[in-house]
Amino acid sequence: MRAFGPAATPHPSALLLAALVAVATPAWSQDFPVEGTSDVGAGASPQGFGASTSVGSGSALRAGADAVGLVELAEPAARAPLTLLQVLDAVVRDAADAQSAVERVIQQEAALRRAWSALLPTLTAGASYSLTCLGGGELGVSCADRTASFIDPDAAERQAQLFEGLASAIEIGAQVEPDPADQQELLDQAAELRASASQIRADAADAKPVVVQAANVLTGSLTLAVPIFNGRAFPLLQNAVAAVDVAKGSGDQVRAALRYSATRAYYAAVTAKKLVALAEQRVASAARHQQATAARVESATQAPLALRRAELDHLRARRELAQARAGHDGAVAALGLVLGRREAFDVVEPGAQPPLPAGNADALIERALAARADVAAQRLAVEIAGRGEVDAWMMFLPSVNLVAAARGTSFTTGFVGDPVIGTVSVSAQLPLYDGGVRYAALKDSASRVREAKIALRALEDRVHAQVRGNLRDVREREAALQLSREAAQVAALAHQQAQATFDAGLGTALDVSDTALAEFLADLELARAELDLALAREGLRYVVGELQRPSSAN
Q1: pLDDT higher at 498 or 149
Q2: C-alpha span between 24 and 180 (Å, rounded)
Q3: Are 158 and 249 in contact (CB under 8 A)?
Q4: pLDDT tens digits, residue range 428-437?
Q5: Statement: residue 375 has pLDDT above 50
Q6: Whether the predicted pLDDT of 155 surpasses 50
Q7: Parallel, antiparallel, or unpaired for β 346-347 and 420-429?
Q8: For residue 410, what are the contacts with CB-CB under 8 A and spacing of at least 6?
Q9: What is the DSSP secondary structure assignment for residue 27, as one 8-state letter?
């Protein structure tokens, strides 16, 4: 039995197609789990990630995954190279999810400002103008001031005449008074009465009507309200501060997820480029073998069937090259769609990957729990839920406010002549019965605290499993890469030996064809193993929370 015979080797086109599908499919076509309040992120799931949560509608990442077989970029005159560092810079700047994360931080900062308003004083100014008109009567419609007179001229004249009559009677009595002192006293009283009569006539002449209702009134007000005590404002303010931190942490998680997804996609495009090079080598090798076989057939040292087989191998190699180029273009187009590029570009081999996080599984788990944004966000969610319970208790306490108001008006011809009036008041409100709303809030907030703790515990358990699973995956990929390298070396040596034997006239064209196919498949598996290890290393760094940008050398 031949070691490289057709019965032992799958069809090359099937294996190449499977490799291209695995390599060219964007990393973000898988799901990435996001927990708790940090419902953000995008990208592929590292080994061991079990849950999945969608990121947000309209994500360019998912758009690339949904239409991966339908996207194509315009072909420029020359494809400009795009490094991994440039891709990562562009994706965290231009991706829709990254821009949305920035907007969410702005929104939470605005909500924090609104929360402060419950503790800060408010100053309100107002103004109004009114025109009052009366209808009916002899005048029809009148827009004049409504007045009232409080002094009757006839009554004042009668009172003055009464005083003068009394004064005349007293003067007559004084004339018959023998005592000079008493006589002078009576005359003085008569003089006072006459003076009072004169004053009454003068007051009646000078009296003006009092305006009861002014037709034109302009009024302004200024009100200052200072909250002295509002128990519910404090937990709400703390939650608003925490919400800003959650939004910022979620933004960091989004950018890390975008970098992780873009890194996977870039490595996939690089590997697809390697597959194109391998397919080109196979086409060249099949062409050389076809020429050599044709020469043997002409010299009658090989049967014509061997030439047909060589021609068939050459045709298959050309078809595999076309598939490899299509896969490479699809991988580049999917990546370019995320970056917002309309023209195709070239990818270059990244430099050395950053070192893996040091430490055993337990140490890496502790680092993940301390560094991951989703864990921090879920812990903040527990704190926020706890403040919700405090807010429910604060509903039983009174609220106290200080209110200072000033009012100015143009109506100063009435009973009050001062244009400005000011008031200061302190008000307190104590809820006595609200239909059971406060007790329902207590029950609801306590349940939310328990739910947040359950979610945190589940997330921590998932982090344990993710770190252990990705750490094991790295070890398995390293072992698989070593075996793939050994297999590639053996396949290359076997092909060299078969070619040498064929050139010496001792071997068959079938041996050369089989060993060439085996070498090609071994190289494919080696390229895939290198990709799997690179992605596994990135996955471990991601789940540990230490995914960082590559150095500028990349």
Answers
A1: 498
A2: 137
A3: no
A4: 989 888 888 9
A5: yes
A6: yes
A7: unpaired
A8: 214, 216, 217, 218, 219, 419
A9: G
